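Table 4 source record.
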Amino acid sequence: MTEIYRFISEHKNDDLSKLAFSFAKNKEINLPFVLQQISGYQKIKKKIPSWYEIENLRFPLKLSLEQCSSEITAKYKREILRGDSLLDLTGGFGIDCAFLSTTFSKVDYVEVQPELCEIAKHNFEQLCLSNIQVYNEDAVEFLQKCASYDCIYLDPARRSDKGQKLVFLSDCQPNVLEILELLLLKSKEILIKLSPIIDLSVLKKSFSSKLSEIHVVAVDNECKEVLVRITSKDSTELKIKTVNIDEKRQLRQIFQFSETEKEESVATFASDIGRYLYEPNVAILKSGAFQLISEKFDVKKLHIHTHLYTSDKLQADFPGRIFEVEKSFLFSKNELKENLKDVTKANISVRNFPETPESLHKRLKIKDGGEVYIFACTAMEKKMLIKTKKILL
């Protein structure tokens, strides 16, 4: 086996098709196994970079990373949960379990698929995570007979038997709504990972007063997951935290607030376009805090249905992208001709506007890309274009 893993390590950056062809007749190599492992390493290279450097890891036949957490989101969860004992009821490939285990003395990993259990046990050993115990059991059956834990973590399966994506809580396995009382009997704190496209408004109704926190997690301005924190004690105030992690620059945009703050906030609306334009990150947009960010960051909203903001004074800590306005003008033939005559290349975005970026590129005869950013939007009840340049802070 040592020779096989040495071979895998030496070839893990190779093209799989060429590798399969080159060693097709070599009877000394278990080629299907080798190709499976090399494919696994290639899939985790970007998503779990620290694991890529570990030799002798094993990967399942079909490693789908779509629902799996990335290293960066797994590390974020590690900041939320802490204690002595943790139960991961939906172990899977073990990414979250592995990273969460570094903040707990004892961790129990539960997974119904035998292959994944064997792989996880092997990988935990390679990662020197001796505090994790692996159980090949059904999640609900294990929960019914187990002792109590400081924290329980779940990442319910969000795919049907036919491979269709599932969004509703009641469709996922295990159904956390059905076992919520049992979960709370076994732990005072539950963290559940949900689909990034789940409707946040249904979470309060689904979990009632037991819902303590909602975390909307984005990486490089792409919403990756929604986390809900459930506690055994009734929560007096729901807290919502949005985080957008810039992976390359290792920076975070964090904005947190209470549900009451969001409901009671009032936006200020612009009467003209100021010197700066602000575009909230996707985590903010997902949270629906459209009025609150106007109030908190002293920026004016362009329109009730246009989630862009403006100010004359730079608000450098705004959670999103910031642009300096060069020109703003009406969406009319004469105005377009006059104000865009020197623009041959630009990034075009639309907000509350009747056309798509593609149709505007074609209409304006402007290629995509470059350093110019044009926002087509409804502002002050008018169809407008705002020509800007991006500010890097």
